C-alpha cells in the first residue's frame, strides 16, 4: 500500500510535466469558483493567497453495523466461538473546527481540533452448564476533545489552471486514551473501553501528503495522497497503526454558485502495535488488536454552495455522503454503512 501511494504522488508530478502549455501567459488556478474547494470530506485540499484567513466547521457522522471477517460477512454466532461479547452497531459523531492562514502565497498554515462522541451497542452471550445461552444487550459511550493537528501546505505549482501543493503535518496527542464506561461484565463499575472507543491516539504523529488540482470551463477535479505515521508508543503500551489514503474527485459547476461532485477513495490502516494491558483481548472483538485496521474502498457524492452576494462572499456550504464499495478489515469488525459530512467554510 505504501508503494501505491508514493507511486500516486509521482504520477501527479509526471502528469503536470506532460501538460502542453498552450497559453504562455500565466493562468492561475481560480480559488473563487464554486468547485474550487474539494468535497467537504477532503482535508487540506487547497491553499490561500498571502494574508487570507479561512475558518471552517464540519460535522461528520459515521454509521457502522453488521459484522465482517476479512472479506466475508459473518454473524454473531461466528463471533461467539472465540469471544463473549459481539458488537452490534456503532455511531461516531465528529465536530471539526479548522482555521487556515497564509503568511505568503507559497505557504498556508492549518490547524484542526475535533470533538468526538462514540456510541456502541453490544451483546454478551453466556452459556450455562446445560448448554443453554442467554444474551444480554448493553451500550457504551465515550466523548471528548480529540487530538489537535497542525499542518503546513506548501504550494509547488500554480499555473495553467492547475495547482500542486505538499502537506507536512504533526498530530499532538491531546485526546484521551483512558475513556471508561460500565459494561455488562463490570458489576456497575466503570472499566477501560476498547481501542475504537478511545478519543485520542496518545502518540505524536506526522502527516505527509500531496494534492493536485485542475480546472476546465465547467469541470474541475483533483487527487490527493497522504500518509499518517504514529511515532511513539503511548502511556497504555500501544501505538496506533499508520494510515494511508488516496482519493480523487470530479466536480461540475452547475451554476455560478452550485456544484456537484463525485469522489473515489482508498483507505488502508495498519494493525495496532502493542496492546493495552488493561484490556482482555478474549472478551470482545474490539479489545483484540488483530481486529483493527484493514482496507476500505469508498465512493462519495457531494455538493458545494458558494455565496456570491457581496455581504456573504467567501462563505460556502457543503455536504457529502460516502458509501462503501469494498471492505476487507483485519479480523472481525463492524461494517461501515455510510459517512455523512456537512460543513461550512468562510474565507476573508
UniProtKB/TrEMBL annotation:
- Which InterPro entries does the protein's record reference? FApF
Q: Which keywords does the record carry?
A: Signal
- Which residues, if any, are the signal sequence? 1-18
One Pfam family name from the record? Answer: Phenol_MetA_deg
**Designated name of the protein:** Transporter
Q: Which organism is it from?
A: Mesonia aestuariivivens
